[in-house]
Specification:
Strand 7, helix 6 and strand 8 form a beta-alpha-beta unit. The chain contains 11 helices and 12 strands. Bound molecules: NADP nicotinamide-adenine-dinucleotide phosphate (NAP). This is D-threo-aldose 1-dehydrogenase.
């Protein structure tokens, strides 16, 4: 539910809402708020079927129409779950993205996938494949797991972690060819590596990047070159890990807060706590700032938040709609 006086506007298209005003952008194509489904793949811990259903239903009921997943998230679990939950809704009413670069193959079984961060059985495992054939196969297998006949955005996933040169020589040209063939609408790269994203943007083949954790309230290494390059070339930016995977997600920052999928170092805990105190002085909360911050940059179209429960979704919709005093932004920018 939106707070009193605030209008829910997850598209960010309404200039009368806090979210719409915050999103200062060149012509928009992607909605301002999206649902990240890594948590539906049991990231860190099990998300129950009931929680997953509640989260996706709350997102839909709250007007969210952009959903992101990947084969990597729970070795196929997130894609299957998200696809099944979205099947209740007409495909043309929402935007869906998934990723390529890792193929899923039979795993050893008998153990789990916690070494990769997901609480799922290891009956499947990932293999890097950025070849032309691997990209097409990955796309086809994702469609099958999702139970849809198309995705709107196909991202090359973490090319810096896999065979990077093959990613540039084969995967990106293949994605561009798939766009030409009408198989996908938008070509993207998703990564936390500013250098690899900048290199990808400069190929001229991208419509969108998914920028993980590198343009947040806590840190902005993308601001120097990457975001200006995206603006110059009309590449949309979807900011993700805007809570830096947990440290910015609560009004107070606990000692065991997560940063980059692991425990946060003490200097970051201190920075986050100082920001939380500043937010409180202005009557708002740290996560309100974390959700709102990236959308103030003119290159950023969307913020995609990782959510595993209906309560998190509803709370984040409220956060996105919250008015943040301009003088607070000024103090943060100073
Ligand atoms: N390379 C890439 O392309 C890439 C990289 C990273 C992310 N992504 C995408 O972006 C999405 C989001 O990224 P992310 O999962 O790294 O991080 P995030 O959005 O920074 O953080 C997600 C975590 O924040 C917590 N959270 C969310 N809403 C909350 C609320 N209202 N109250 C308290 N805690 C809340 C949840 O914690 P709990 O776990 O405690 O529930 C959740 O796991 C992913 O799902 C994925 O779709 C893509």
């Amino acid at each position: 539910m939106a707070p009193r006086g605030a209008r829910s506007d997850p598209t960010g298209d309404d200039p009368q809402t806090a979210l719409g005003r915050r999103r200062r952008r060149i012509p928009q194509r992607l909605p301002a708020l999206g649902f990240g489904a890594a948590q539906l793949g049991n990231l860190y811990r099990v998300t129950t079927d009931e929680e997953a259903r509640g989260a996706v239903e709350a997102a839909w009921d709250g007007g969210i129409r952009l959903f992101d997943t990947a084969p990597h998230y729970g070795v196929g679990t997130s894609e299957r779950r998200l696809g099944a939950l979205l099947a209740a809704h007409p495909r043309e009413e929402y935007l869906l993205s998934t990723k390529v670069g890792r193929l899923l193959v039979p795993g050893p079984g008998g153990g789990d996938d916690t070494a990769h961060g997901f609480s799922v059985p290891d009956t499947r495992r990932r293999v890097w494949d950025m070849s032309a054939e691997g990209i097409r196969r990955s796309h086809a297998e994702s469609l099958e797991r999702l139970g849809v006949d198309r995705v709107d955005v196909l991202y090359l996933h973490d090319p810096e972690e896999g065979p990077t040169e093959q990613a540039f020589a084969e995967a990106l040209p293949t994605l561009a060819a798939m766009r030409e063939e009408g198989l996908i609408s938008h070509v993207g790269v998703g990564s936390k590596d500013v250098g690899v994203l900048l290199r990808a943007v400069r190929t001229g083949e991208l419509d969108v990047i998914m920028l993980s954790g590198r343009y947040t309230l806590l840190e902005q290494p993308a601001a120097e070159q990457l975001l200006p390059a995206c603006l110059e070339r009309g590449v949309e930016v979807v900011a993700v890990s805007v809570f830096n995977s947990g440290i910015l997600s609560r009004p107070e920052v606990p000692e065991d807060a997560m940063y980059e999928y692991a425990g946060a170092p003490s200097e970051l805990l201190e920075r986050a706590r100082a920001l939380a105190a500043l937010a409180a002085e202005h009557g708002v909360e740290l996560p309100d700032l974390a959700v709102g911050y990236p959308l103030r940059h003119p290159a950023v179209s969307s913020v995609v938040l990782g959510m595993r429960t209906a309560d998190q979704v509803r709370q984040n919709l409220e956060r996105a709609a919250r008015e943040i005093p301009e003088e607070l932004w000024d103090q943060i920018d100073a």
